[in-house]
Amino acid sequence: MKVLAIESTLDETAASVVESSGSGVGIVSSVVASSANLHVKYGGVVPEIAAREQLKLIIPVLMESIGEQEINEIDAVAAAFGPGMMGCLLIGVETAKALAWVWNKPLLKVNHIGAHLLANWIIDLRSQMSDVRLPEFPAVGLVASGGHTDFFLMENVNDWKWIGGTRDDAVGEAFDKAGRIFGLPYPAGPAIDKISKEVSDEEYKELNKEDKLPRPLIHDKTLDMSFSGLKAAVARAADNRSLIVDSRSKNIMIRDFSEAVTEVLVAKTKIALEKYKPKSLLLGGGVAANSKIREALKKLGEEFSIPFFVPELKYCGDNAAMIGAAAIMRPVEASFDDSPEPGMDVV
Ligand code: KG4
Ligand code: ZN
């Protein structure tokens, strides 16, 4: 089965052609355009600007992703129906509807958050099938993105249960808000990741214990998380220590921020692994691109003797290949009068 998939939930406009390949999903093409640079000066995505950019980008992105492929080989058209910003979602969903109608193909409805985890079924078409290892169920999945930080118990590809998540800000939001205080451009996750790696262990040891940022809810035994206090703590510390003028101590604090977030995610994932004893651990979402978090969760998987799966970097941030993967793994047919769902639930 071959699917043309569209992603337009926020500031990325993406299209991809994917096909089923064994028990996984192969990527024929994946094109991602972004309006992120237009939102930099506002420190976050401006809905009206993002929606206008979706309109501008959708056709060129689709044309590039379809390329020379035969339309009659495409079996279905999929789109992310939510969650996301209504103005942005409308562009992708209505474009998908128009194509499905004109080509007389089924229209598939995908949940963006679920797709971040289903990106773990993407396989490299060039690799030998015998090398491919795919997640086994039951699995524990952690989605860490700009809008969500949630744990799911995945009994099988269709049956998922929400088992915990953040009470307030998403972890990506914490990266972006802290980044703003550190004077880094939106989205700040990649810059915080890079700077953290540049601070050596010796330098990091200079940070006094009492000057360290809090690790919110780290000793709480549930899967509840909270990241809004971390942002406030960064703001307080920045005020107290005039960090904006001292780049060395600022960088040490940036590393501490990464350590704090990683420690919390590891502690919470550990609770989930102890409680649910899954056969695999899955990570997905924009924050899954973070090198420290990837490394730490891989190690945790090893401690529990279960494989850890995280998508290739290009399939962590918003992209349409994951929407296609979700459409193939978990097809849900939509009708032409279905609307985008800005608050769509995963389970
Ligand atoms: O999944 P995503 O692309 O969009 C949403 O669905 O929200 O996630 C975007 C988030 C942003 O908050 C961005 O700062 C964060 O992912 N991010 C990172 C890294 N790359 C992107 N956070 C930490 N480390 C990174 N390397
Ligand atoms: Zn996302």
TrEMBL record:
Q: Does the keyword Ribosomal protein apply?
A: no
Record's GO cellular component, any one? cytoplasm
For this protein, the record's PROSITE patterns field holds: GLYCOPROTEASE (PS01016)
User: Could you say which cofactors this protein requires?
Assistant: Fe(2+)
Catalyses which reaction(s):
L-threonylcarbamoyladenylate + adenosine(37) in tRNA = N(6)-L-threonylcarbamoyladenosine(37) in tRNA + AMP + H(+)
EC code = 2.3.1.234
Q: Which SUPFAM superfamilies match?
A: Actin-like ATPase domain
Work out whether the entry's keyword set contains Cytoplasm. yes
Q: In which compartments does the protein localize?
A: Cytoplasm
Q: Which Gene3D superfamilies match?
A: 3.30.420.40
**What residues does substrate bind to?**
143-147, 176, 189, 193, 290
Q: What class of enzyme is it?
A: transferase
Q: Which Pfam families match?
A: TsaD (PF00814)
Organism domain of life: Bacteria
Enumerate the UniProt keywords alphabetically: Acyltransferase, Cytoplasm, Iron, Metal-binding, Transferase, tRNA processing
UniProt GO molecular function: iron ion binding; tRNA N(6)-L-threonylcarbamoyladenine synthase activity
The residues that hold Fe cation are 112, 116, 318
Q: What does this chain do?
A: Required for the formation of a threonylcarbamoyl group on adenosine at position 37 (t(6)A37) in tRNAs that read codons beginning with adenine. Is involved in the transfer of the threonylcarbamoyl moiety of threonylcarbamoyl-AMP (TC-AMP) to the N6 group of A37, together with TsaE and TsaB. TsaD likely plays a direct catalytic role in this reaction.
NCBIfam families per record: gcp_kae1 (TIGR00329), T6A_TsaD_YgjD (TIGR03723)
In Swiss-Prot or TrEMBL terms, this protein is called: tRNA N6-adenosine threonylcarbamoyltransferase
The record lists the lineage as: Bacteria, Candidatus Collieribacteriota
